[in-house]
Design brief:
259 residues; mainly beta; SH3 type barrels; endopeptidase fold (from Nostoc punctiforme); 2 domains; 4 helices; globular; Papain-like_cys_pep_sf; SH3 domain-containing protein
Length: 259
C-alpha cells in the first residue's frame, strides 16, 4: 500500500467511520500530511503527521507523494496568513479558498506545489516564529471571534474549542495535540490562576473529571474560547462565567503554559 499523502483540497472532513454519514472528528487543511493505515475503493483510514490523529476520509481528497517528499520538513514551513483572502489559483484557473494556518508545500516565489500540481499563491505567506508568540497570539486568537462552534472544526467557517487553540498555536509556531484531553497532558502547570498570562491555556472538566473544554487566557481574568461561537468571557477560580447566561458554564481544572 502506498502510504504517504498530502491533503489536496482546502478542507477535508476526517470521519469516525468510512461513511459520509459518520460524524466528523476533525478536519484536514490544504497541505496537511497523512499516512495511510487502511484503504477501500473510496475510503481510507489515515493518521495525521502533525498531531497523530486517526480518522477516515475520501481518498480522492489526497495526493500521493514519496517518502522523501513527505519527510522534507523544510518544504512545509510556510503558512497562509491571518486574513480572509487566502486564494490559490491552480494551473487550470480554478481557485481554492484556504483558511488561515493552512500549509503551503514547497512554497517558492509565489507558488506552492503538491506533487506535479502547481498553484499560484495570491496572499503573502509567512513562517511562524515562536519568539513572536506574546506579540502575535492575542491578535491571532481574536481574528476568529464570532466563528461558529463546530465539532471537529479547524477553520473560520466553524471551529471547536481544541481546534481553535491548536490553530492559534500553529500560527505562532507551536504544535498542540488535537483534543483538549490530549492538550492538557502537554505543557507545564501554572499553579495559580493569578499567575496566568496571555497565551496560557485553561482546561475544564465535567462531573466525571474528564477534560472536555479548553480556552486561551488573555490575562488572569479573561479567556477566549469556542463555545457556541468564539468569544471572550470572564474567568475566576471556579471557572468560566457567562454574563449572557448568568451562570458558570465550565469548571476550571488546570492551567498550562507551553512557551
Amino acid at each position: 500500500m502506498e502510504i504517504y499523502h498530502l491533503c489536496r483540497v482546502a478542507v477535508a472532513p476526517l470521519r469516525n467511520e468510512p461513511s459520509d454519514r459518520s460524524e466528523i472528528v476533525s478536519q484536514l487543511l490544504f497541505g496537511d500530511r497523512v499516512k495511510l493505515l487502511e484503504k477501500t475503493e473510496k475510503w481510507c483510514k489515515v493518521i495525521t503527521y502533525h498531531d497523530d490523529y486517526e480518522g477516515w476520509m475520501d481518498y480522492k481528497q489526497l495526493k500521493l507523494i514519496t517518502e522523501d517528499e513527505f519527510l522534507a520538513e523544510q518544504n512545509y514551513t510556510y503558512l497562509t496568513p491571518v486574513q480572509l483572502d487566502n486564494t490559490l489559483i491552480a494551473s487550470d484557473g480554478t481557485k481554492y479558498y484556504l483558511t488561515p494556518g493552512s500549509t503551503l508545500p514547497n512554497y517558492k516565489d509565489g507558488f506552492c506545489e503538491i506533487g506535479e500540481e502547481k498553484f499560484r499563491v495570491t496572499s503573502l505567506p509567512f513562517v511562524p516564529r515562536k519568539e513572536n508568540f506574546r506579540k502575535e497570539v492575542e491578535g491571532n486568537a481574536k481574528f476568529f471571534e464570532n466563528t461558529s462552534y463546530l465539532w471537529g472544526g479547524r477553520t473560520f467557517f466553524g471551529i471547536d474549542c481544541s481546534g481553535f487553540v491548536q490553530t492559534v498555536y500553529k500560527l505562532n509556531g507551536l504544535q498542540l495535540k488535537r483534543d483538549a484531553s490530549q492538550q492538557a497532558e502537554q505543557g507545564e502547570t501554572v499553579d495559580f490562576l493569578e499567575s496566568a498570562v496571555l497565551g496560557d491555556l485553561a482546561f475544564f472538566d465535567n462531573e466525571e473529571g474528564k477534560i472536555t473544554h479548553v480556552g486561551l487566557m488573555l490575562n488572569n481574568h479573561q479567556i477566549i474560547h469556542s463555545a457556541g461561537k468564539v468569544h471572550i468571557d470572564p474567568i475566576d477560580g471556579q471557572g468560566i462565567y457567562s454574563a449572557e447566561l448568568g451562570r458558570y458554564t465550565h469548571k476550571l481544572r488546570i492551567i498550562k503554559r507551553f512557551f
